Amino acid sequence: MRIKKLYIFIIKQFGLLFFGTFFICQFVLMMQFLWRYVDELIGKGLSLEVMAQFFWYMGLMLMPQAFPLAILLSSLIAFGNLGESSELTAIKAAGISLMQTFRPLIVIVLLISCISYYFQDVIGPKANLSFYQLLVSVKHKSPELEIPEGVFYDGLPGSNIYVQKKDLTTGKLYGIMIYRQTGSYEDQAIILADSGMMQTTEEKKHLVLTLYSGEWFENMRSQDLANSANIPYRRETFSTKRIVLNFDSGLNLADMADVAGDARMKPLTKLLHDIDSIKEHNDSVGYSFYTEAKRYGLRLPMVNAEDSVKIMKQLATDKTTFDSIYERQSPADRQSAVKSALASVQSVKLDIEMKADYARSLHRYYHHHQLEAIKKFTLSLSCLIFFFIGAPLGAIIRKGGLGVPVIVSVLVFIIYYIFDNTGFRMAREGQWTVGFGMTISTWALAPIAAFFTYKANKDSVVFNVDLYKNLAMSMLGLRTKRHIFRKEVIIEDPDYRLDAERLAAINGDILRYHEHHKLLHWPNPIKVFFHAGDDQEIEEINERLEETIENLSYTKDKLILTELNHYPIMATHAHTRPFRKKWMNVVTGLLLPVGAFFYFRMLRFRFRLYKDLRTIRQTSERIIPRAIALGGN
After folding, report:
1. Burial of 285 by CB count in 10 Å (0-12 exposed, 13-18 middle, 19+ buried)?
2. Predicted pLDDT of residue 105
3. Per-residue pLDDT at 247
């Protein structure tokens, strides 16, 4: 019962976050996808119903891509929250391993993977087909009529219209110039008008343009005058004229057959069937190209067919060569032969290039079907892989909220996207095999997921930020400050007189240390890298100092507490050698550039120890009188 309640608790933690992150990821993907087609939608006057259909089909298409990212982010946040609130520690203390905690979520993620496959195989093809049918229809839709000022507007079929000025209040147009073209360049008509009004018909299929005070110039080109050099035209002056222009502002759905051949619009069974058909068709086309290529042979345009056969037999029986035949020709025949051969070669080259482009398009179409068939499985499998990346990372990092988890999720998804997109493109172009290109992202992330799961199950601190922070500070020689605050409960005051005597003794040891150890002198590099030995004396001084500071930290005196924070935290061995292990020092010393770096780093620590010992003496001299005074009381 305990484990069942735990499962319910884990499922609630994960479920709420999954639904929230799923809608966020879906929104981000839809906005990124929308930017690709924003130019096709602007200025088309689409109704809310059409836009709703557009976003609905887009959302159904992108749901399988949102599932892995939502699983990664939600699992990372869920287990990060559990680790940050120490609930994960309590679960482990109860004897429940991390993999047992993962069990209910593994079942849920497997279910989501199946849902992702169902969307890709059943709902996705229909959504893709409806989406691209709607997109093609939107592309072919006439734009919403909005004529700008001072610019030729070509949004009307067969006409260009120029308006010098518009009255936005009355809707009247001034300085109108219209170019109409019906059949050819000679059939153009030019219409000039002082002003006019523009209205659409009730069925929104035509545009009625009422013009005032203008002229109409039109060529009278006809079939009877096709061969005449003089083309008559007519000129008409009018005070009022009405023109009807074609303008269909409605949305007419395109034929589904235009987009139904795309691999994205097919389920898995249809893809497998079409892959065999396409392969058979490509093989037949390739064989026909091969047989035609074998017929490209020697062409002798300066001789007839019978002579050509004789020449070929002669070449086969004796030592006659093409060069000898060419030398026996006249200069005019030679030039004609060269021109004819060059034309023949160019013709063959163009034919081969055209067939090569066609063959590449056939292979690209074939590879696209293979890629879409494999993608249905790899995208579903990525849900499980992303879970085994996000959940262990959350348990290791132990940071909840939307800060660190979002950053880690974005980095992981970028890595996945780079591998997946690169593999898809390389496999589609035939540079990689289809299986390798579509599974490279899986092969790249699966070891990472296994590594994170292993480390989390072993309670590894590989992602402990504080560990790397302390290591970096140690490598760079950065010190940490001492923070001592007044204790909330003090049972017994420290022995001030004894602590004052200890501080005085430490000051004396520091003076003797300065006499024997010249910290400001350059040490011998041989002794630094090739002779082992720690500074036992300074270690003993540091131990006694830390013990005295710990005793005095229980004081109620504010002056002593303030002075205790002035004591530096000493590095007790970095001033003698770079590393504690002898072999590491030897290797470092043999590598001259690395050894030089660590040698100067050691000099820096010697100078820092010199200043620390001076600070300790000065601080102790201020504390000793105060401690003696408090001890006397």
Report:
1. middle
2. 92
3. 64
